[in-house]
Amino acid sequence: MELIFAAALCSVAVSIILKICRDRGLVPMQMIAWNYAMASVLTYLWFKPDLVHVSVEHTPWWLITVLGILLPAIFFCLSKSLQSAGILKTEIAQRLSVVLSLLAAYFIFHEAFNQLKILGIIMGVCAVFCILDSHKSKQLNHGAKPMAFISLLAVWVGYALIDVLLKYTTGLGLQFSVTLNLMFIFAFVLSMLYIIVKYKSMGTWQNIGAGLLLGVLNFANIALYVKAHMLLKDSPAVVFAGMNVLVVMLGVLSGLFIFKERVKPIVALGLALGLSSVLCLAYAM
């Protein structure tokens, strides 16, 4: 359980640091680029993927490239969502992306569903709509640009899309560690090209330092989560539920006590539905 807690702590720490750094004027895209540089190195050292014998002919490079584009793009949306919607709602939306992943598993991969899984998906979708509606109605009343609504929706859909593409890639025979390393390398290269073209530099020392720290936490989150699944291989539901519930709860606590965010009744309802959804889906596993 310590590994699951540490993984959840790293996940929320990424959001906290990203939000604080952005509020202090650092450039999110530069931090995101260097985050993937560090994550690439740590993935290679920890998982030891066999990149030397990767088949140039049989590797789905187009898919790796798409993932390499999506990773920094969705990370940037995460940054926008943290700024405009807050960490509490962003963490709920990010964690409930599993609902869309499960729907894709049903329609694309023909995974069997039971009643608990259906109930969990319904509650998860309702939870996300509660979170989205809290911003949609406010922005319509004030005539503001729907940045929070769009960024939350992008986080929800984007993380689910990445999860589905990852499952599809590993289904083609490419190992998890190889896929992860290639994704991070492509994400770093493409992000670096973007910031060089846009900012005419590779980033300031502050952005590079913050990005490398994000990379350590981002990688630690993945490595600890994978390790927890390995140690509790007979109880995947415990890992799944523990990780998602802890991330949401830590996100709520950080939102309330660090960033002084307010919880409206509709958001509280979304939170309750979200946690119930995660527990239902875990029990259904």
UniProtKB/TrEMBL annotation:
Stored SUPFAM superfamilies: Multidrug resistance efflux transporter EmrE (SSF103481)
Any Pfam family matching the protein: EamA
TM spans (from-to): 61-80, 92-109, 115-132, 144-162, 174-196, 208-226, 238-259, 266-284
Record bears the keyword Transmembrane helix: yes
Residue ranges of domain EamA in the record: 3-132
Name by which UniProt lists this protein: DMT family transporter
Cellular component terms (Gene Ontology): membrane
Keywords, sorted A to Z: Membrane, Transmembrane, Transmembrane helix
InterPro entries: EamA_dom (IPR000620), EmrE-like (IPR037185)
